[in-house]
Amino acid sequence: MTWEAVIGLETHVELSTASKMFCGCPARFDAEPNTNICPVCLGLPGALPVPNREAINRIMQIGLALNCSVTRRPVFHRKNYFYADLPKNYQISQFDLPVCVDGYLEVGGDHPGRIRIERVHQEEDTGKSTHRGGDGRISAAEYSLLDFNRSGVPLVEIVTRPDIRSAAQARAYAQELRLLVEALGVSDARLEEGSIRFDANVSVRAGPRAPLGTKVEIKNMNSFRSLERAVSYEIERQTARLSSGQRIVMETRHWDEEAGVTRGGRIKEGSSDYRYFPDPDLVPMELDRDWEDGMAALLPELPSVRRVRYEEMGIDAAQAANLVGAEAGLAQLFEDAVEAGAGAPQAANWATGEVVASLRKAGIPSVGGSSLTGSSLAELLGMIRQGTLSGSAAREVLAGVIAGEGSPAEVAAGRDLLQISDTGLLESVVDELIAANPDEFARLKDGERKLVGFFVGQVMRNTRGKADPKLAGTLITERAGL
Amino acid sequence: MAFTTIVGAARALRDGSVTSVGLAEQVLQRTSMVEAQLHAYLTLDSDGLMEAAARADEELAAGSDRGPLHGIPIAVKDNMTTRHMETTAGSRILSGYVPPYDATAIRRLRDAGALIAGKTNLDEFAMGSSTENSAFGPTRNPWNTDRVPGGSSGGSAAAVAAGMALGGLGSDTGGSIRQPASLCGVVGAKPTYGAVSRYGLIAFASSLDQIGPIAHRVEDAALLLDAISGHDPLDSTSYPGGIEPSGARLGGGLDGVRVGVARRLGGADAVEPDVEAAFDRALAAMEGAGAVTLEVDLPSTEQGLSAYYLIAPAECSANLARFDGVRYGLRVDGATTEQMMSRSRADGFGPEVTRRVLLGTFALSAGYHEAFYGQAQKVRTLIREDFARAYRQCDVLVSPTSATTAFPLGDRTEDPLSMYVSDVFTIPSNLAGHPAISVPVGLDRHDLPIGFQVMAPALEEAVMFQVAAAVESLAGFDTTVPFDPSYGLRGGVR
Fold first, then answer.
1. B460 partner at 20 to 30 Å CA-CA among A105, A382, A412, B200?
2. Cα distance between residue B292 and residue B260, in whole Å
3. What is the pLDDT of residue A418?
């Protein structure tokens, strides 16, 4: 039997607004614990929430970028559950009228598909618990510390329909979503800092037409790799169970990165009863057509569109994906270089290859932090094309430019790296070599053509790499009368 | 002479016949004589009051006049947060809790120059109609200390009636300002929902709660309301537009005013004969003054009480979830966080609060949500439509405020339902979000005050106060409680 995996993803994106969702506190939670707090985000008696308009702007941009429709009168609901780091013991979230619904995200690459988006809703984040003593888990802890800096930070939840069919596709979706959010500039979009978090719902069924199997929710994946591994593990686990006639239990499982397994937690009996009801402290918002149009106008070029544009510039799909997926500064460098006259494929190769390597070697974290510009890259590539720099010399020039030694021409001159394309100069070098290696030259003349390489190598050595190897090769074959 | 009205005291302050310090001494002296009998205050801030009074006098002497409330001692219900002053909501779970901020209404009172004399007793979290549900013991009625003052703003109503402050603030979710005002013989008004910011009002039922004034005179109540009302960016539900000042039409009289008589509002029956008689006398006087009366029927309001007892508990079950022993208030330790929360709540909440939290939790549960909470919201819409229909025919509606006068302590505590029906006349205005005011119009055979309710459409406070002032003047009721300096207040408790 062929088993089919059915996967849905829930993604939490923390918005990088200046202030929190329902109060004026800074939305930064890297500060000293409990410093960015006020009566509202601490849930003090009498405090009331007031929605952050900028957060609403941003969720609309996310929704529109995901091809969703905007709800004209979305409603905030209270989601009731008791937890020590949830100050009001209810979370302001959304239920049947989220800000955006019914969109999709196209995933390309090796796992193409259109993943439908069910809803994009706005909510507030909770505080953060740290359990001390025992094994760091709440059950064995001696005491727990609470930091409410994160409490009330605006959170957007993006829920897909169960359209994902493999672990690799789940990863591709997650990566594409992160690119999108990064392009929108609405979030720091850093997985390692938890500003994007993924939960996966995984089930397995007996082929595409079989009814859906029992789903299991997996949590605690903090990288794309662990997302893919966790989903993959879970698919295998469920397939093995079903193949041997066992049942799948509806539950929430946690991914254990070190052990590479998902572990069962609490059993879900149906869905939890959160007793949702409209928050009477918040009046329904009116997201009218004008507001929506204003947000649509703010949308930047989306990654999918940019990839197509790059391909149309003559770059292959993989390289276009590389550029779009790279640090924003590299793509900009590429575009600036092309603007300054560089050929697109060459500029793309250098931006994603040599530039990245040189920066890493120089210990510079981003292209923006170096003195390399698009026009200097274009100049460098131009020198290669004109034959004034060899490939290896160009790499050295690039390092010099990155180190701030000046323009490519200045660095090449300063480091004495300009290619010798002067025929007269090279002829004397070639003649010296012929005189010094009469046996080899005789064999070459007899037709042993591979010795051209030997002589070109000698020319390059004697000119410390500055000779134009093509020109040297031509001179040698001419001398040999071939 | 003793001052009981804000307008009178304000005039005397400016003609130099009294100082703010003198007013503060007056209310403190009266408090020292009757507080042991009444228990109206949970916190009396004598020192703060005297200091603030001295500052108010200095300001006035220096020519800086903040307006009619300048230097006037006010009593505030203890469910509004006051910076540096304990705020308990009448609950053990908040005993000793000192908020770090002032409620908007409190801040506006202070900005207007008013002095906060102290925090008054209430039914725990404003849940009740007699102030007997306070965790700190009941308040008694200054007209007869064997009787309840009504509730839940019983402390403020009793304090104002007994002269322990010249005015007060209460909160009204289902009648909690108007019913105690009625039972204590003073004026009490619930504004339009959204007229006064709820920021800093410890929430009971967010879609119904409103802060409002309690005073001896309708014009005093209007002054207080105008000081605290207006848009507040900290409360999303506060009304964003301007509202005509409540006191704008106080001398307007009744000529040609169309008065709808809602005698059976909320399906009321068993109205006490003395209450009914006083109501009819007031109506006749209004007609004599030129009012046009007509009997109106608001049939949907019969479901008001049931709808209220689903909506209010549902909202309170979430509003009170934050009291868990984690961040503030009472904490009873347990082996786990869950146990600590559960023990803190079990010990911290009284029986009525527990009952309503359980009721509300149940009403919102999966499978019951639509049948209970959903239905109740539909009733609310029907009630609004009933009011809208009635207001096509009339400018204001009138009814008794309470079917009975002040009842004896303990009379209704055994049977929650008998307590709940105390609010049958007042609840419809909360469900509709409309303003309503209670004005004292007379005494019953036991010398207990009787209140008369005037209701108006949303944001029509000025018309409501106009009619209320006329009713007050026609009734000529003397709000002074019988007080014998050597004996104290009337009643069995001294």
1. B200
2. 8
3. 77
